[in-house]
Design goal:
By secondary structure, this protein is of the alpha/beta class. The chain contains six helices and five strands.
Length: 112
């Protein structure tokens, strides 16, 4: 499919069948964006997602406040504040894609 692509959802099925999803995307020459860095490390093209380490820090802050006596119902709902972009250049080359330099400059990590 010319000009097609995939946005792969962040769920357990994707993680369980990571290798199959990546292989099928490559077989059909579809660029795909994933929600997990581990998939890009396993030859996926790109991920854009929350920074999970930062998200765990936020959670730890909540736990600390609760343990110090704050009622959970008094804590505000917080959205993630830090996101990361990971690009796999080897996969881009295999798919025949030219990654714009502006994306490479903004990426948090580039896998060669």
């Amino acid at each position: 499919m010319p000009d097609g692509g995939l946005v792969v959802p962040p769920d357990t099925t994707t993680l369980l069948h990571r290798d199959l999803v990546v292989a099928l995307a490559a077989q059909h020459r579809l660029p795909a964006v994933y929600a997990f860095r581990s998939i890009v490390a396993a030859s996926g093209l790109m991920s854009y997602s929350v920074d999970f380490v930062d998200l765990l820090r936020q959670a730890a802050s909540y736990v600390n406040r609760i343990l110090r006596g704050t009622k959970p119902s008094d804590l505000p709902v917080e959205a993630p504040t830090k996101y990361e972009t990971i690009v796999n250049l080897k996969t881009a080359k295999t798919l025949g894609l030219a990654v714009p330099p502006s994306l490479l400059v903004r990426a948090d990590e580039v896998i060669d």
